[in-house]
Amino acid sequence: MPDLGAPDLVTLDRTALRESLRLLRSARDGDWERPSPCAGWTLRDLVAHMAAQHHGFAAAARGSGADRTYWIAPDLGRDPFKVYDESVRHVLAAFAEEGVVERGFTLPELGGTFTGRIAVGFHLLDYVVHSWDVAATIGVGLDLPRPVLVAALEIARRVPKDPERRGPGAAFAPVLPTPEDASPLEEMLALLGRSPDFPHP
Question: How far apart are CA 64 and CA 80, in angstroms?
Answer without folding.
Answer: 25
